[in-house]
Amino acid sequence: MLLTSSGVSTARFTRCLHAELRNVRTTRGIRWTLGITVSLWVVVGAGVAAINLLLDPGSVSIAGALLGVGSAVTVFVPILAILIVAADWQSRDVMTTFTLEPRRHIVFFAKAMTVLIVCLALVIFAAVFVVVLAVSLALATGSGVGWNTDTSTVALLLGGTAVGMISGLAYAAATQRVVIAIVFSLIQGFALDPLLMLVPHGAGSWFRLAAISEFVSGSGQLTPAISAGVLWLVVPLTTGFVRHQRADVQ
Q1: What pTM was computed for the model?
Q2: How many angstroms separate the Cα of 8 from the Cα of each of 13, 14, 72, 98, 148?
Q3: Binning pLDDT at 50, 70 and 90, where does residue 250 land?
Q4: Residue 100 vs residues 30, 84, 93, 162, 249: alpha-carbon distances, Å
Q5: How many angstroms separate the Cα of 242 from the Cα of each of 2, 42, 61, 85, 139?
Q6: CA atoms of 210 and 94, how far apart (whole Å)
Q7: Cα–Cα dist 233/249, whole Å
């Protein structure tokens, strides 16, 4: 009986995951965000690689291009996660989803898995794109390729991506409104985090979301990362999960 129940739950989750992945391809806002993200990566990656080549004509730096692309990742990954989680709440299409799958926790985890799959696919694309770009630019200019990517660069890209997608998932689940979640994410990243750096004696670092990715890359400390993670990730994610189970579709 337990095995049968587990098999049914797995089938429900798989069906729901396929539906969420299909929504990524068919939802206009998500498609536009994906297109803008990839286009920005092309522009930023090419620009950073070209600047590094001007500064050091002998080689094209992969690490520099990867860090440039990583800066775009931290901006657009949360927005993409927000659209995946909350777009159907905004349009009320989630009513159809809940009719077909009344077990809301399955829908929530399917959305979370969709965010993970899409964001990881983008990061893999970014890494491959940076290598291809660097090699192509080196061949075009007769320069060498600077294979100077270290673990801290990779950790910063992966850490920024993980924080971005989890924060986007958390804000979207907690607010269930695309615009509110995106505005809050942008304010948190571009205004609140920089302002917290001005707090005397480094107390603001305990509340900066960037403290998590800084710790992952080796430039930060564990305790502020845990504090920021609880405040900006665990609390809104828990709130969002509870709201997802109980909220009425408005």
Answers
A1: 0.86
A2: 9, 10, 40, 17, 49
A3: low
A4: 22, 18, 11, 30, 15
A5: 26, 39, 46, 14, 54
A6: 32
A7: 24
